[in-house]
Structure formats: C-alpha cells, structure tokens
C-alpha cells in the first residue's frame, strides 16, 4: 500500500527512467490538499510521446510504502502536473533511491529496505490492465491518421 500525506493512493506507476516523482493535480484535489503552495519549477517535463507537460510546481509530502511492520515513510518531492492520466502519480528514480527500492517487472513487485528487513509492494494486475487500457484509449483518440 502507498500512502501520500495520510491518503491511500492507488494506481502509482513505477518509472525507473524518470528523473522526477510526479503527482497529478487531480489527485491532490481528491485528497483535499488545500492551503499548500507549490515551489516554482521552471523545467518542463516531456511525456512518452515527446509532448511538453508544464509543471505547476513542486510539493514535498510524506510517502509511506508497505504495511506494518514493514512500512517506511520518507519525505518525497513531487512535481505537480495538470494533465489527464490513468495513473494518480509516478515514482521515479529520486523516490526509488530514497527508499532504496528495486522494482521487478518479472515479479510485479517493488522491494524496499525497512531497517534490516525487506518490505514488498505487489502489483494489482487487474488495476494495471485497466490503467493500460485507459492510456491506450486516450492516446488512440489523440492520433490523427493520414494515408498520404
């Protein structure tokens, strides 16, 4: 289970290639995170297809991974974006480094250190498939096909 600022958050994409952790503005809105001000961010983000996603700013929130007794919490900087996504957030290399986490796509698990023990987050295959289908459906709507 992943918890951000005491809210259980599902549909978080583990992105080993991302240099930032991303949280969607819609996720913050659902969490009723009012009164927080974003730190300015001037570097644009680039989506999978190369399109520019302008960040609204950055916010530092507590992120907890795992369940007791193998649960750990770290303060994580998230870049906030206002863009549609099937996911609520993306954990990139900075969070994976902070948690000393290792993602295994083969086992569909995220392992991380909790003291001398190892905590584990397991992928929910049904949720992952729905997210993937949502992304494919949205990308399909954006494509313009030309036969010239």
Concise description?
The chain has one domain: Acid Proteases (Cathepsin D, subunit A, domain 1).
Overall description:
It is a single chain. With 148 residues, the protein is of the alpha+beta class. It has a single domain, classed as Acid Proteases (Cathepsin D, subunit A, domain 1, Beta Barrel), CATH 2.40.70. Helix content is 20%, strand content 39%. The chain is built from three helices and twelve strands, in the order ββββαβββββαβββα. The strands form three sheets. It has a seven-stranded mixed beta sheet with strand order 2-1-7-8-4-9-3. A hairpin with a 2-residue loop joins β11 and β12. The radius of gyration is 16 Å and the shape is globular. The protein starts with a strand and ends in a 6-residue tail after the last helix. 22% of the residues are buried.
